[in-house]
Design goal:
The complex is a heterodimer of chains A (224) and B (121).
Chain A lengths: L4 E8 H18 L3 E7 L5 H12 L5 E7 L4 H7 L5 E5 L8 H9 L8 E5 L16 E7 L6 H4 L1 H5 L3 E5 L11 H11 L4 E4 L8 H17 L2
Parallel strand pairs in A: 2-5, 2-6, 3-4, 3-5, 6-7, 7-8
Chain B lengths: L1 H19 L5 E9 L6 H11 L9 E7 L2 E4 L5 E3 L3 E3 L2 E3 L12 E5 L3 E8 L1
Parallel strand pairs in B: 1-2
Antiparallel strand pairs in B: 1-8, 3-4, 3-7, 5-6
Classes of the chains: A alpha/beta (224), B alpha+beta (121).
Chain lengths: 224, 121
């Protein structure tokens, strides 16, 4: 005769990630580092956004980066070329970075020497939603070339974001995209979100983004 | 793809627990999935059935309970369920306090993906 036994496990996978993200956050706070989680679809401009920011701020702040690459070190090497301490994480088939991977990334960086950390997430508008990494600011970059309904089609990621950047506005006409609609959709989904239009090619909107980064650092420092 | 890594984490914890308790078979697995995760229980079940082949959990039954979101409001003292509003043409939970309408809330349930217990023989 079979005897059945009930064994309690109580393991919450997403809760475990949140706890680890909190630990990462405490580590970052200990070293006075402001961390930005840069999310967006493949090709939306995440790497170029971080590169551009590094070039603008490298003389004012000490910057580090964590780069998720599916294979090799393609994105990571772009940051390394700018002289920035970079932790490369190979994500393989994983569709998002998680707090565990970022914990490993933090171990590879000289944290005591950094003010800002950019974490470039995997190109994906769905999976990173549930995975906090320990960041202070969640930034989602979308490009007009993804179609101007991309924001309303992916509401979940914007619900937890602090800022959305609508990128590549210089080609909006060429791809028949209404950038203002994307801004409006983001504000409907999350009335608290900051939204900005940008072209990393022409430079439009970059000053506004740099102000956002500086403001985030100042808020962080004033909280210590 | 997303459900796969979560399913793997769940089954690993199940098999680990089964081994520690000398289980011959895992008969049933009880899981709670928060509604805010937007995880698909049918997809999870399909993946479970696939990845447990050849293990003591092969053929196990799955009891997947969906957990409704609950919040504590920081503005007023409301603690409880939230209401869902339909916006535009998509169904999205707008997370705000049903009592005072403020968005300054703590989500206390609805974001979990938890393997609660297993029945073994």
């Amino acid at each position: 005769m079979h005897t059945f036994e009930e064994i309690s496990i109580g393991y919450d996978i997403l809760g475990a990630n949140r706890k680890l993200a909190q630990k990462n956050r405490e580590t970052l706070d200990k070293f006075g580092i402001t961390a930005f989680n840069i999310m967006g679809a493949i090709g939306s401009g995440k790497t170029l956004l971080v590169e551009t920011t590094i070039q603008r701020l490298v003389n004012s702040f000490r910057i580090g980066a964590i780069a998720g690459d599916v294979v090799a070190r393609l994105d990571a090497s772009r940051f390394e070329k700018l002289g920035i301490p970079t932790a490369a994480l190979n994500t393989g088939k994983e569709c998002h970075l998680d707090a565990h991977l970022v914990e490993h990334g933090l171990l590879k960086l000289p944290l005591e020497t950094l003010d800002i950390l950019f974490i470039e997430n995997v190109g994906n508008l769905i999976c990173p939603t549930d995975y906090e990494l320990g960041e202070h600011k969640r930034v989602v970059i979308v490009s007009v070339s993804e179609g101007d309904d991309i924001v309303e089609k992916h509401p979940l990621i914007f619900g937890t974001a602090d800022l959305i950047i609508v990128n590549k506005i210089d080609i909006a006409d060429a791809v028949n995209a209404d950038a203002d609609k994307m801004v409006k959709d983001a504000r409907i989904i999350n009335p608290r979100i900051d939204v900005m239009k940008m072209s990393l090619k022409t430079g439009e909107g970059i000053d506004e983004w740099i102000d956002f980064v500086k403001k985030s650092i100042n808020i962080k420092l004033s909280q210590i | 793809m997303h459900e796969i890594s979560i399913a793997w984490a769940i089954i690993e914890s199940v098999l680990d627990c089964a081994k520690k308790n000398d289980a011959k078979r895992v008969e049933e697995i009880f899981i709670e999935v928060g509604e805010l995760t937007a995880l698909n229980p049918d997809q999870l079940k399909f993946i479970f059935e696939t990845i447990t082949k050849g293990t003591v959990a092969e053929g196990a039954k799955y009891d997947i309970k969906i957990v409704k979101p609950r919040i504590n409001c920081r503005k007023c003292s409301y603690s409880g369920n939230i209401e869902f509003f339909e916006r535009l043409h998509f169904f999205l939970p707008i997370i705000k306090c049903p009592e005072c309408g403020d968005a300054d809330i703590d989500i206390i349930a609805g974001r979990e993906c938890c393997v609660k217990k297993i029945k073994i023989s």
